[in-house]
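Before the break, one more example. Copy the sequence into your notebook; we will annotate it together after we see the structure.
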Amino acid sequence: GRGIEGAFVVDLSSLWAGPLCGALLAAAGADVVKVESTARPDGARSGNGPFFDLLNGAKRSLALDLATDEGRRVLAALVAGADVVIEGTRPRALRQLGVDAEAALASSGPAVWVSITGHGRDGETGLRVGFGDDAAAAGGLVAWDDAGPCFCADAVADPVTGMVAALGVLDALAPGAGNGAVARDAAVAAADRPAVLLDVALARVAASLAGPTLTVPTGLARARPRSRHSRGAGRARDRRVSELLVRCVDVLDVGPADVRVRGGAIAEVGPDLPVGSAGEVVDGSGGALLPGLHDHHIHLFASAARDKSVVLTGARDHGDVAARLRVGSTALAPGAWLRATGYHPSIAGELDRWVLDGIVGDRPVRVQHRSGAQWVLNSVAVDELGLDALDPAAGPVDGIERDRAGVATGRLHRLDTWLRTRLPDAGAPDLAPLLERLVRRGVTGVTDTTASSQAADLDALAAAVAAAPIRPLVVATGGVELAASGVPGPLVRGPVKLIVDDAAYPAVEDLAADIVAAHAVGRAVAIHCVTRVALVLCLAAFDEAGGRLGDRLEHGGVIPPELHDAVRRHRLAVVTQPRFVAERGDAYLAEVDADDVPWLYPCRTLLEAGIPVAAGSDAPYADVDPWRSIEAATQRTTQSGAVLGVDERVDARAALDLYLGLWDRPGGTPRRVAVGEPADLCLLSEPLAVTLRHPAATEVAATIIAGRRVV
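Here is what the structure looks like once it is written out:
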């Protein structure tokens, strides 16, 4: 197996257990599409909104009219192209829609089929309707008091079943796994064959949890659990309070204490603080309270657009790429553009218009290189943009590749703005789901490092951020063309983004002039710098222009020890991406010059050399989850299990600090929870030492921004 990273998951389930399984797989890096019937959408939509978002917010969504032939055709295509299918429907009902698990697995369809039912798929139980609590009781998960049997745990079968199902999928797809070890231990029946059917029954899962008969003390038998974290959990999540008290928390570098927040700042830290005038009291239950995380390098619009794109990350070969593109095409209206991201030539060689024509030739298609630097168009897209009609001799646009005959190959290099102005106007992507997803992971600030060259781009970003009901602080960069410009609220003006493109290096004097121009208007620079050659060029430019506190190298893909002194002399910070090693490490080992491999995306050696280091996701080009990045920084392990740069590993606390620097001093002294500091905070459900053993976004219990609990 190749693992879950980038796997295409079709989630046909509803309510709790199945959607939780899909959410956990999405958190593990899968591309999950939630499919619903227009006639019978997920019943959870009519319930608690934040709970529905928690289970489904990280997924793409598709509604189909399954009463029509077209709806069933699209459903069949999705199932055929999936790596994993999750469903919670009795087998007979699915067969009526033309979907059969056994038939799909026997063909070249999904590698794993997850069937979640109340009592199992087979025999008479396969006909029984089951819900969480009655299935739990059927499995023996009951206690007894003087009045007879009663629940010993309310609403436990669904969430545990969702976790069990996700473990079964991860086990089935794990490289070298035995297709079912975890699943069997968790009461899941898995077929011993390359394609795995996971028959996950709520009653069987409950039975695996039921121990000896329990006797519950009188008066407690039917007690219902209360919220662990907040007295105000039932209030509207955007309710503003003048004062907030966080009780019983393990304050970072302080210890057990209470924290009072007033007017957007921390007002008091100490033991047993009185409630006083606090409008909301959050019970931390001993969990860690730390400053909110800051993602120092992200591309917001591109990340939001990825959620509506075909994701090619993790594709196995040309056939897999073709299947994903064709499945994505079936879900679009005739003539609509198909957008795909995450392609790398290591999957199936170089793409051009003619290769794409052989996959999808009846609609415009654009496929983005995983670096974000290149788009490849098919011939329909080339024709719609009129690339062949442009006169190459007139030099209309640098970056349009042509063959020797002057024919456009379909490859566009660093032409995002040019391309966007010529595509059908679909409006700016909705940032609300992405920003909320970040906030739910404890992120209270991000730096958008897109090198926008037009003021209209920043206007669009500001409008999209302002429209999001839950949002972190957003720092915007922009290119040198906008160095002297302000930024519209609610954005904050950050450094000027400069790019050292390895396909066309700038002259040292030109790069130095751009650095001087940014410094002249009081702004630092953030320079895209990936290779050893690019680093040498950057350092030469700083030799001419001089450095400024806050200047930074984005990525720092190769920084050998002999250049540490020069980086430190110019007071440069390095904003690295630990997830690149986890997601791309095997490709690096195969493709990068052997002399550079030991110094790829360094961390520990930079810190030991006194060079400030911060971290960013570079989403959508890597996973947006900071906790997975923290874990990656401690392990430096590739998808195949190889270790890339063992001497660059840092401990989990040092990895966390990569996200705790000020946005304008990345890699500087980590922010702390102290009186007078901004009340941008992340509350974990466990003490920090426990969370850092296995960093995960699921440990985030609450996020506070500007003194207001937002999730």
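Residues 176-193, 211-240 have pLDDT under 50 and may be disordered. The longest strand covers residues 243-251. Try to locate both features in your own notes.
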